[in-house]
Fold this protein.
Amino acid sequence: MSRNGPVALVFHTLFVVFMVAPILVVCWVAFTPEGFLSIPLTHFSLRWFRALANYPEFVHAFGVSLWLGALSSCIALLFAVPAALALSRTRFRGRDALSALFLSPLMIPHVVLGIAFLRFFTSVGIGGTFVALVIAHVVVVFPFALRLTLASATGMDRSVEMAAISLGADGWTMFRRVTLPAILPGIVSGWMLAFIQSFDDLTMTVFLATPGTETLPVRMFLYIQDNIDPLVTSVSASVIAITMAVLILLDRVYGLDRVLTAKGGDAGR
């Protein structure tokens, strides 16, 4: 195996710095004692983290984003799993067109989707509701869940299923004990990617959110329109810290390699 040369190492280092530097700067600014955006050079302060207690809107918006992302990702997977199995195992007329239809939300700008959803939900009488937000997010995150689940389903060894059938397993038992464990890496990765997309969406959600259903990105966007203090950076730093804590806990308890690659799993167990 050939090792990376000095040029490749420099390129990779610069790429990592380019990706991580904005996150580090945001977290650094969150500890400023000043009342404006600045990098703390003399001492650090938790002033803006304590200030979050005076803005329960951010805590509520964070809860809405978590619930919305988890619910829309789970619903999207309920459609993505059978769709991926059907597309990977059958050949029929219009298969490519159907696949393109499923992935079409990726090709439509979110501004257009937001306006279209707003008009549609208003016309059917559910505009401004949480149900409308869930439906819109399911449509947007469905292609992400489908792509990764489809990749796992396409690369699955079908002979394992044939062996299960020959041993007398019915359809549900085969799916539960053979097919599902085999495509689990794609399902988990698809859920995580769909959740991130839902949690982070602003462009479309800003057209659909109401004061009672504001997500965290929408709440932050509305806040920075009227304020220039570092409160938003403390919110971002808190979300980053929570995410890192969850990943570390998951790695300690279960193992990220098992979550992402299903290492150590047994499809026939």
